User: Fold this.
Amino acid sequence: MDLAHLFLGVQYKGALPAHAGEVTLVTQDSRRVCPGAVFVCARGRTSDGHDYAAKAVQAGAVCVVTERPLGLPCEVQVENGRKAYALLCQNYFDNPAKRLRLVAVTGTNGKTTVSTLIKQALEQTGRKAGLIGTIHTMIDQMEVPAKYTTPEAWDLAALFARMAAAGCEFAVMEASSQALDQLRLWGLSFEVGVFTNLTQDHLDYHGDFEHYYAAKKSLFAQTQTAIVNGDDAWGRRLAAELADSCRVITFSSHDDHADYTAKNVTCTASGVRFEMVGKGFIQRIRFPMPGDYSVHNALAAAAAVMALGVPAAETARALSATRGVRGRCEVLYAGAFTILCDYAHTGDAIEKMLSGIAPFVKGRLIVLFGAAGERDAQKRPQMANAVVKYADFTFLTSDNPRGEDPYAIIEDVEPGLKASGKPYAVEVERRTALRKALDMLREGDVLALCGKGHEDYQVVDGVTLYLDEHRIVREWLDEKGL
Assistant:
Protein backbone atom coordinates (compact mmCIF):
# COMPACT_ATOMS: atom_id res chain seq x y z
CA MET A 1 0.00 0.00 0.00
CA ASP A 2 1.28 3.49 -0.80
CA LEU A 3 1.27 6.41 1.64
CA ALA A 4 -1.56 8.28 -0.10
CA HIS A 5 -3.98 5.37 0.38
CA LEU A 6 -2.69 4.70 3.89
CA PHE A 7 -3.53 8.24 5.01
CA LEU A 8 -7.04 8.38 3.51
CA GLY A 9 -9.35 9.95 6.11
CA VAL A 10 -6.46 10.85 8.44
CA GLN A 11 -6.04 14.57 9.04
CA TYR A 12 -2.42 15.67 9.10
CA LYS A 13 -0.18 18.68 8.49
CA GLY A 14 2.79 18.65 6.17
CA ALA A 15 3.44 16.73 2.99
CA LEU A 16 3.71 12.98 2.66
CA PRO A 17 7.17 11.96 1.48
CA ALA A 18 7.29 11.44 -2.26
CA HIS A 19 8.60 8.21 -3.80
CA ALA A 20 8.33 6.34 -0.48
CA GLY A 21 7.40 3.09 -2.18
CA GLU A 22 5.22 0.40 -0.65
CA VAL A 23 4.49 0.65 3.07
CA THR A 24 5.47 -2.57 4.83
CA LEU A 25 4.32 -1.90 8.41
CA VAL A 26 2.62 0.65 10.67
CA THR A 27 3.98 0.60 14.21
CA GLN A 28 4.31 2.53 17.46
CA ASP A 29 7.25 0.39 18.55
CA SER A 30 10.56 1.75 17.28
CA ARG A 31 12.14 -1.69 17.82
CA ARG A 32 9.92 -3.11 15.07
CA VAL A 33 10.75 -0.48 12.48
CA CYS A 34 12.12 -1.88 9.24
CA PRO A 35 12.61 -0.43 5.73
CA GLY A 36 9.26 0.76 4.42
CA ALA A 37 7.66 1.17 7.86
CA VAL A 38 5.55 4.08 9.07
CA PHE A 39 6.42 4.98 12.66
CA VAL A 40 3.74 6.71 14.74
CA CYS A 41 4.87 8.69 17.78
CA ALA A 42 2.60 8.57 20.80
CA ARG A 43 3.09 9.52 24.41
CA GLY A 44 2.68 6.79 27.00
CA ARG A 45 2.80 6.73 30.78
CA THR A 46 6.49 5.96 30.99
CA SER A 47 7.86 6.76 27.53
CA ASP A 48 7.35 9.09 24.60
CA GLY A 49 7.59 7.77 21.05
CA HIS A 50 8.92 11.14 19.89
CA ASP A 51 12.19 10.31 21.69
CA TYR A 52 12.71 7.38 19.29
CA ALA A 53 11.63 9.01 16.04
CA ALA A 54 15.14 9.75 14.76
CA LYS A 55 16.18 6.16 15.48
CA ALA A 56 13.14 4.96 13.52
CA VAL A 57 14.26 6.99 10.49
CA GLN A 58 17.73 5.44 10.75
CA ALA A 59 16.09 1.99 10.78
CA GLY A 60 14.33 2.68 7.49
CA ALA A 61 11.01 4.36 8.35
CA VAL A 62 9.64 6.08 5.22
CA CYS A 63 7.33 8.33 7.25
CA VAL A 64 7.17 9.44 10.87
CA VAL A 65 3.85 10.62 12.34
CA THR A 66 4.33 13.11 15.17
CA GLU A 67 2.27 15.28 17.47
CA ARG A 68 4.81 18.10 17.39
CA PRO A 69 7.54 19.28 14.97
CA LEU A 70 10.75 17.27 15.22
CA GLY A 71 12.51 18.58 12.13
CA LEU A 72 12.74 15.17 10.46
CA PRO A 73 12.69 15.08 6.65
CA CYS A 74 9.83 12.51 6.44
CA GLU A 75 7.50 13.64 9.21
CA VAL A 76 3.83 14.65 9.17
CA GLN A 77 1.96 16.00 12.18
CA VAL A 78 -1.36 14.92 13.67
CA GLU A 79 -3.34 16.12 16.66
CA ASN A 80 -3.31 12.74 18.42
CA GLY A 81 -0.84 9.98 17.58
CA ARG A 82 -2.91 7.17 19.09
CA LYS A 83 -6.00 8.11 17.10
CA ALA A 84 -3.96 8.36 13.91
CA TYR A 85 -2.33 5.00 14.60
CA ALA A 86 -5.70 3.25 14.97
CA LEU A 87 -6.96 4.73 11.68
CA LEU A 88 -3.75 3.96 9.80
CA CYS A 89 -3.82 0.33 10.95
CA GLN A 90 -7.38 -0.13 9.72
CA ASN A 91 -6.48 1.54 6.40
CA TYR A 92 -3.45 -0.72 5.92
CA PHE A 93 -5.68 -3.81 6.04
CA ASP A 94 -8.29 -2.16 3.78
CA ASN A 95 -10.71 -1.41 6.63
CA PRO A 96 -11.89 -4.96 7.35
CA ALA A 97 -14.02 -3.77 10.30
CA LYS A 98 -16.40 -2.19 7.79
CA ARG A 99 -17.08 -5.66 6.38
CA LEU A 100 -18.06 -7.01 9.81
CA ARG A 101 -20.86 -6.34 12.27
CA LEU A 102 -19.01 -5.37 15.45
CA VAL A 103 -20.08 -6.15 19.02
CA ALA A 104 -18.10 -5.01 22.08
CA VAL A 105 -18.51 -5.99 25.73
CA THR A 106 -17.09 -3.84 28.51
CA GLY A 107 -17.33 -3.83 32.31
CA THR A 108 -15.29 -5.10 35.26
CA ASN A 109 -16.70 -8.62 35.46
CA GLY A 110 -18.41 -10.83 32.90
CA LYS A 111 -16.78 -9.58 29.68
CA THR A 112 -15.32 -12.95 28.73
CA THR A 113 -18.46 -14.89 29.58
CA VAL A 114 -20.86 -12.53 27.81
CA SER A 115 -18.74 -12.14 24.66
CA THR A 116 -18.24 -15.91 24.40
CA LEU A 117 -21.95 -16.55 24.89
CA ILE A 118 -22.84 -14.05 22.17
CA LYS A 119 -20.51 -15.85 19.75
CA GLN A 120 -21.84 -19.28 20.71
CA ALA A 121 -25.47 -18.15 20.45
CA LEU A 122 -24.91 -16.59 17.04
CA GLU A 123 -23.31 -19.83 15.87
CA GLN A 124 -26.30 -21.81 17.16
CA THR A 125 -28.45 -19.73 14.80
CA GLY A 126 -26.21 -20.61 11.83
CA ARG A 127 -24.21 -17.38 11.72
CA LYS A 128 -20.41 -17.14 11.54
CA ALA A 129 -18.63 -15.05 14.15
CA GLY A 130 -15.14 -14.22 15.34
CA LEU A 131 -14.18 -13.64 18.98
CA ILE A 132 -11.47 -11.47 20.55
CA GLY A 133 -10.97 -11.79 24.29
CA THR A 134 -9.03 -12.72 27.40
CA ILE A 135 -8.98 -16.49 26.98
CA HIS A 136 -8.33 -16.67 23.25
CA THR A 137 -9.20 -15.25 19.88
CA MET A 138 -11.30 -17.28 17.46
CA ILE A 139 -11.59 -16.79 13.73
CA ASP A 140 -14.78 -18.76 13.22
CA GLN A 141 -13.66 -22.13 14.70
CA MET A 142 -9.90 -21.55 14.54
CA GLU A 143 -8.26 -20.62 17.83
CA VAL A 144 -5.53 -17.99 18.06
CA PRO A 145 -3.65 -17.34 21.34
CA ALA A 146 -4.56 -14.07 23.06
CA LYS A 147 -1.82 -11.73 24.30
CA TYR A 148 -4.09 -8.96 25.57
CA THR A 149 -7.81 -8.84 26.38
CA THR A 150 -8.10 -6.15 23.69
CA PRO A 151 -5.25 -6.20 21.13
CA GLU A 152 -3.23 -3.22 19.93
CA ALA A 153 -4.63 -1.47 16.85
CA TRP A 154 -2.33 -3.25 14.34
CA ASP A 155 -3.13 -6.73 15.68
CA LEU A 156 -6.82 -5.86 15.92
CA ALA A 157 -6.99 -4.77 12.28
CA ALA A 158 -5.11 -7.91 11.20
CA LEU A 159 -7.58 -10.10 13.11
CA PHE A 160 -10.55 -8.33 11.58
CA ALA A 161 -9.03 -8.93 8.14
CA ARG A 162 -8.68 -12.65 8.84
CA MET A 163 -12.25 -12.85 10.14
CA ALA A 164 -13.63 -11.11 7.06
CA ALA A 165 -11.59 -13.39 4.80
CA ALA A 166 -12.95 -16.44 6.67
CA GLY A 167 -16.51 -15.36 5.95
CA CYS A 168 -17.42 -14.15 9.43
CA GLU A 169 -20.44 -11.88 9.58
CA PHE A 170 -19.81 -10.77 13.17
CA ALA A 171 -16.81 -9.89 15.32
CA VAL A 172 -17.49 -10.03 19.06
CA MET A 173 -14.83 -8.60 21.34
CA GLU A 174 -14.00 -7.61 24.89
CA ALA A 175 -13.21 -3.92 25.32
CA SER A 176 -10.92 -3.37 28.30
CA SER A 177 -10.76 -0.01 30.04
CA GLN A 178 -7.03 0.28 29.31
CA ALA A 179 -7.60 -0.34 25.60
CA LEU A 180 -10.37 2.26 25.50
CA ASP A 181 -8.22 4.75 27.38
CA GLN A 182 -5.35 4.10 24.95
CA LEU A 183 -7.70 4.59 21.95
CA ARG A 184 -6.99 1.18 20.46
CA LEU A 185 -10.60 1.05 19.20
CA TRP A 186 -10.64 4.57 17.80
CA GLY A 187 -12.52 4.92 14.53
CA LEU A 188 -14.48 1.66 14.85
CA SER A 189 -18.27 1.62 14.77
CA PHE A 190 -20.01 -0.95 16.97
CA GLU A 191 -23.49 -2.11 16.17
CA VAL A 192 -23.96 -3.27 19.77
CA GLY A 193 -22.06 -2.44 22.96
CA VAL A 194 -22.67 -4.22 26.28
CA PHE A 195 -21.99 -2.82 29.76
CA THR A 196 -21.91 -5.56 32.42
CA ASN A 197 -21.00 -3.73 35.66
CA LEU A 198 -18.34 -1.59 37.33
CA THR A 199 -16.58 -2.63 40.51
CA GLN A 200 -13.16 -1.95 41.97
CA ASP A 201 -10.35 -3.04 39.67
CA HIS A 202 -7.57 -1.39 37.67
CA LEU A 203 -7.52 1.67 39.91
CA ASP A 204 -3.74 1.37 39.85
CA TYR A 205 -4.07 2.39 36.20
CA HIS A 206 -7.06 4.76 36.22
CA GLY A 207 -6.54 6.36 39.62
CA ASP A 208 -10.19 6.55 40.70
CA PHE A 209 -13.66 5.31 39.79
CA GLU A 210 -14.60 8.37 37.77
CA HIS A 211 -11.71 7.91 35.35
CA TYR A 212 -12.37 4.16 35.26
CA TYR A 213 -16.04 4.79 34.44
CA ALA A 214 -15.16 7.42 31.84
CA ALA A 215 -12.95 4.92 30.02
CA LYS A 216 -15.76 2.36 29.92
CA LYS A 217 -18.31 4.95 28.88
CA SER A 218 -16.17 6.11 25.95
CA LEU A 219 -17.03 2.89 24.09
CA PHE A 220 -20.62 4.03 23.68
CA ALA A 221 -19.65 7.15 21.75
CA GLN A 222 -18.90 4.62 18.97
CA THR A 223 -21.96 2.41 19.53
CA GLN A 224 -25.40 2.34 17.93
CA THR A 225 -27.18 0.23 20.59
CA ALA A 226 -26.14 0.00 24.24
CA ILE A 227 -27.07 -3.05 26.34
CA VAL A 228 -26.83 -1.98 29.98
CA ASN A 229 -27.10 -3.80 33.32
CA GLY A 230 -29.90 -2.00 35.15
CA ASP A 231 -29.03 -3.73 38.42
CA ASP A 232 -25.63 -2.02 38.58
CA ALA A 233 -25.48 1.53 39.97
CA TRP A 234 -22.94 2.60 37.36
CA GLY A 235 -25.07 0.91 34.71
CA ARG A 236 -28.11 2.98 35.73
CA ARG A 237 -26.00 6.12 35.52
CA LEU A 238 -24.69 5.09 32.10
CA ALA A 239 -28.18 4.36 30.77
CA ALA A 240 -29.37 7.81 31.86
CA GLU A 241 -26.36 9.56 30.35
CA LEU A 242 -26.68 7.71 27.03
CA ALA A 243 -30.41 8.27 26.64
CA ASP A 244 -30.00 11.09 24.08
CA SER A 245 -27.03 9.70 22.15
CA CYS A 246 -27.86 6.09 21.26
CA ARG A 247 -30.48 3.40 21.65
CA VAL A 248 -30.38 1.97 25.19
CA ILE A 249 -31.70 -1.46 26.20
CA THR A 250 -31.61 -2.43 29.88
CA PHE A 251 -31.74 -5.84 31.56
CA SER A 252 -32.36 -6.85 35.17
CA SER A 253 -32.73 -9.95 37.28
CA HIS A 254 -35.67 -8.42 39.18
CA ASP A 255 -36.72 -4.94 38.01
CA ASP A 256 -39.85 -4.99 35.86
CA HIS A 257 -39.00 -1.54 34.49
CA ALA A 258 -36.04 -3.00 32.57
CA ASP A 259 -36.51 -3.94 28.93
CA TYR A 260 -35.64 -7.57 29.71
CA THR A 261 -36.23 -9.16 33.11
CA ALA A 262 -35.58 -12.61 34.56
CA LYS A 263 -38.48 -14.35 36.31
CA ASN A 264 -38.82 -17.63 38.22
CA VAL A 265 -35.06 -18.09 38.59
CA THR A 266 -33.87 -21.54 39.71
CA CYS A 267 -30.22 -22.08 40.63
CA THR A 268 -28.59 -25.52 40.73
CA ALA A 269 -25.06 -26.87 40.92
CA SER A 270 -25.00 -27.30 37.15
CA GLY A 271 -26.58 -24.03 36.01
CA VAL A 272 -29.57 -21.73 36.17
CA ARG A 273 -33.07 -21.76 34.70
CA PHE A 274 -35.27 -18.71 34.29
CA GLU A 275 -37.87 -17.05 32.14
CA MET A 276 -36.73 -14.06 30.10
CA VAL A 277 -39.56 -11.56 29.93
CA GLY A 278 -39.67 -8.72 27.42
CA LYS A 279 -42.29 -6.65 25.70
CA GLY A 280 -44.70 -9.13 24.16
CA PHE A 281 -42.81 -12.34 24.96
CA ILE A 282 -41.74 -14.83 27.62
CA GLN A 283 -38.95 -17.29 26.79
CA ARG A 284 -37.54 -20.07 28.97
CA ILE A 285 -33.76 -20.29 29.21
CA ARG A 286 -31.71 -23.17 30.65
CA PHE A 287 -28.15 -21.88 31.12
CA PRO A 288 -25.20 -24.24 31.81
CA MET A 289 -23.30 -22.06 34.31
CA PRO A 290 -24.11 -21.98 38.05
CA GLY A 291 -24.50 -18.87 40.18
CA ASP A 292 -27.26 -16.28 40.26
CA TYR A 293 -24.93 -13.75 38.59
CA SER A 294 -25.05 -16.08 35.58
CA VAL A 295 -28.57 -14.75 35.05
CA HIS A 296 -27.08 -11.31 34.35
CA ASN A 297 -24.57 -12.78 31.91
CA ALA A 298 -27.25 -14.73 30.09
CA LEU A 299 -29.58 -11.73 29.90
CA ALA A 300 -26.77 -9.51 28.60
CA ALA A 301 -25.90 -12.00 25.88
CA ALA A 302 -29.55 -12.54 24.96
CA ALA A 303 -30.22 -8.80 24.75
CA ALA A 304 -27.19 -8.33 22.49
CA VAL A 305 -28.19 -11.17 20.16
CA MET A 306 -31.74 -9.84 19.88
CA ALA A 307 -30.38 -6.35 19.19
CA LEU A 308 -28.54 -7.90 16.24
CA GLY A 309 -31.90 -8.97 14.80
CA VAL A 310 -32.34 -12.54 16.07
CA PRO A 311 -35.93 -13.20 17.25
CA ALA A 312 -36.51 -13.81 20.97
CA ALA A 313 -37.55 -17.47 20.61
CA GLU A 314 -34.54 -18.28 18.45
CA THR A 315 -32.25 -16.42 20.86
CA ALA A 316 -33.58 -18.37 23.86
CA ARG A 317 -33.07 -21.71 22.09
CA ALA A 318 -29.56 -20.72 21.02
CA LEU A 319 -28.53 -19.52 24.47
CA SER A 320 -29.86 -22.69 26.10
CA ALA A 321 -27.64 -24.69 23.73
CA THR A 322 -24.42 -22.85 24.65
CA ARG A 323 -21.58 -24.76 26.30
CA GLY A 324 -20.48 -22.31 28.99
CA VAL A 325 -17.02 -20.76 29.23
CA ARG A 326 -13.69 -22.24 30.32
CA GLY A 327 -12.63 -20.97 33.72
CA ARG A 328 -15.85 -19.04 34.34
CA CYS A 329 -17.73 -20.83 37.15
CA GLU A 330 -16.72 -23.99 35.32
CA VAL A 331 -17.69 -27.31 36.85
CA LEU A 332 -14.53 -29.45 36.87
CA TYR A 333 -16.14 -32.33 38.74
CA ALA A 334 -19.63 -33.06 40.04
CA GLY A 335 -20.17 -36.23 42.04
CA ALA A 336 -20.10 -36.86 45.76
CA PHE A 337 -18.53 -33.40 45.94
CA THR A 338 -18.18 -30.55 43.45
CA ILE A 339 -15.10 -28.70 42.16
CA LEU A 340 -15.56 -25.31 40.49
CA CYS A 341 -13.01 -23.09 38.75
CA ASP A 342 -13.53 -19.35 38.25
CA TYR A 343 -11.46 -16.34 37.20
CA ALA A 344 -12.84 -14.26 40.10
CA HIS A 345 -9.98 -12.04 41.25
CA THR A 346 -11.71 -9.03 42.78
CA GLY A 347 -13.83 -8.71 45.89
CA ASP A 348 -16.97 -8.14 43.86
CA ALA A 349 -16.32 -11.07 41.52
CA ILE A 350 -15.67 -13.40 44.46
CA GLU A 351 -18.78 -12.11 46.23
CA LYS A 352 -20.92 -12.75 43.16
CA MET A 353 -19.53 -16.23 42.60
CA LEU A 354 -19.71 -17.46 46.19
CA SER A 355 -23.12 -15.94 46.93
CA GLY A 356 -24.41 -17.68 43.83
CA ILE A 357 -23.20 -21.15 44.74
CA ALA A 358 -23.49 -21.06 48.56
CA PRO A 359 -27.23 -21.86 48.65
CA PHE A 360 -26.80 -25.32 47.12
CA VAL A 361 -23.72 -26.40 49.12
CA LYS A 362 -24.80 -29.36 51.23
CA GLY A 363 -21.50 -29.84 53.06
CA ARG A 364 -18.68 -27.32 53.43
CA LEU A 365 -17.76 -24.55 51.04
CA ILE A 366 -13.96 -24.61 50.69
CA VAL A 367 -12.40 -21.65 48.90
CA LEU A 368 -8.88 -21.33 47.48
CA PHE A 369 -7.72 -17.88 46.41
CA GLY A 370 -4.84 -15.43 46.27
CA ALA A 371 -4.30 -11.80 45.28
CA ALA A 372 -2.29 -10.70 42.27
CA GLY A 373 0.99 -8.84 42.63
CA GLU A 374 1.71 -5.43 41.14
CA ARG A 375 -2.00 -4.72 40.85
CA ASP A 376 -4.44 -2.57 42.83
CA ALA A 377 -3.58 -3.48 46.45
CA GLN A 378 -6.76 -1.82 47.74
CA LYS A 379 -8.84 -4.77 46.57
CA ARG A 380 -6.94 -7.33 48.68
CA PRO A 381 -8.88 -6.80 51.93
CA GLN A 382 -12.12 -6.77 49.92
CA MET A 383 -11.26 -10.18 48.50
CA ALA A 384 -10.68 -11.58 51.99
CA ASN A 385 -13.94 -10.10 53.27
CA ALA A 386 -15.89 -11.63 50.39
CA VAL A 387 -14.35 -15.06 50.97
CA VAL A 388 -14.94 -15.28 54.73
CA LYS A 389 -18.56 -14.20 54.26
CA TYR A 390 -19.32 -17.56 52.63
CA ALA A 391 -16.40 -20.00 53.09
CA ASP A 392 -16.35 -22.66 55.78
CA PHE A 393 -12.63 -23.18 55.19
CA THR A 394 -10.18 -21.07 53.20
CA PHE A 395 -6.81 -21.70 51.59
CA LEU A 396 -4.90 -18.45 51.10
CA THR A 397 -2.21 -18.85 48.46
CA SER A 398 -0.53 -17.01 45.57
CA ASP A 399 -2.10 -15.85 42.33
CA ASN A 400 0.38 -14.12 39.98
CA PRO A 401 2.80 -12.40 42.37
CA ARG A 402 4.82 -11.11 39.40
CA GLY A 403 7.72 -9.10 40.83
CA GLU A 404 6.11 -8.58 44.24
CA ASP A 405 7.00 -10.64 47.32
CA PRO A 406 4.23 -13.28 47.59
CA TYR A 407 4.53 -13.32 51.38
CA ALA A 408 3.95 -9.55 51.49
CA ILE A 409 0.81 -9.99 49.39
CA ILE A 410 -0.45 -12.66 51.79
CA GLU A 411 0.20 -10.31 54.73
CA ASP A 412 -2.11 -7.76 53.06
CA VAL A 413 -4.89 -10.33 52.71
CA GLU A 414 -4.59 -12.41 55.89
CA PRO A 415 -5.96 -9.93 58.49
CA GLY A 416 -9.47 -10.31 57.08
CA LEU A 417 -9.26 -14.09 57.45
CA LYS A 418 -7.92 -13.84 61.02
CA ALA A 419 -10.63 -11.40 62.07
CA SER A 420 -13.39 -13.72 60.87
CA GLY A 421 -12.52 -16.47 63.33
CA LYS A 422 -13.16 -19.05 60.63
CA PRO A 423 -10.58 -21.78 59.95
CA TYR A 424 -8.06 -21.16 57.17
CA ALA A 425 -4.62 -22.22 56.04
CA VAL A 426 -1.81 -20.33 54.32
CA GLU A 427 0.21 -22.11 51.63
CA VAL A 428 2.19 -19.80 49.36
CA GLU A 429 2.87 -22.48 46.73
CA ARG A 430 -0.39 -22.71 44.78
CA ARG A 431 0.00 -26.26 43.49
CA THR A 432 0.57 -27.54 47.04
CA ALA A 433 -2.36 -25.49 48.33
CA LEU A 434 -4.64 -26.97 45.66
CA ARG A 435 -3.61 -30.54 46.45
CA LYS A 436 -4.27 -29.93 50.16
CA ALA A 437 -7.68 -28.47 49.38
CA LEU A 438 -8.57 -31.46 47.21
CA ASP A 439 -7.50 -33.88 49.94
CA MET A 440 -9.94 -32.18 52.34
CA LEU A 441 -13.01 -32.89 50.21
CA ARG A 442 -15.84 -34.95 51.68
CA GLU A 443 -19.30 -35.82 50.45
CA GLY A 444 -21.45 -32.74 49.91
CA ASP A 445 -18.50 -30.32 49.86
CA VAL A 446 -17.89 -27.72 47.18
CA LEU A 447 -14.36 -26.52 46.39
CA ALA A 448 -14.21 -23.13 44.65
CA LEU A 449 -10.90 -22.31 42.96
CA CYS A 450 -10.77 -18.53 42.50
CA GLY A 451 -8.42 -16.41 40.44
CA LYS A 452 -6.77 -18.51 37.74
CA GLY A 453 -9.81 -19.51 35.70
CA HIS A 454 -8.66 -20.22 32.14
CA GLU A 455 -5.02 -19.39 32.87
CA ASP A 456 -2.54 -22.27 32.73
CA TYR A 457 0.41 -20.34 34.13
CA GLN A 458 1.69 -18.39 37.09
CA VAL A 459 4.01 -15.38 36.91
CA VAL A 460 6.64 -15.39 39.68
CA ASP A 461 9.60 -12.99 39.75
CA GLY A 462 8.93 -12.08 36.13
CA VAL A 463 9.08 -15.74 35.04
CA THR A 464 6.03 -17.47 33.56
CA LEU A 465 5.64 -20.96 35.05
CA TYR A 466 3.27 -23.67 33.83
CA LEU A 467 0.42 -24.20 36.30
CA ASP A 468 -2.88 -25.57 35.00
CA GLU A 469 -5.46 -26.13 37.72
CA HIS A 470 -7.61 -28.13 35.29
CA ARG A 471 -4.77 -30.63 34.87
CA ILE A 472 -3.94 -30.76 38.59
CA VAL A 473 -7.57 -31.57 39.37
CA ARG A 474 -7.73 -34.23 36.62
CA GLU A 475 -4.56 -35.89 37.91
CA TRP A 476 -5.91 -35.91 41.48
CA LEU A 477 -9.22 -37.39 40.31
CA ASP A 478 -7.35 -40.09 38.39
CA GLU A 479 -5.34 -40.95 41.49
CA LYS A 480 -8.58 -41.32 43.46
CA GLY A 481 -10.18 -43.44 40.75
CA LEU A 482 -12.77 -40.75 40.06
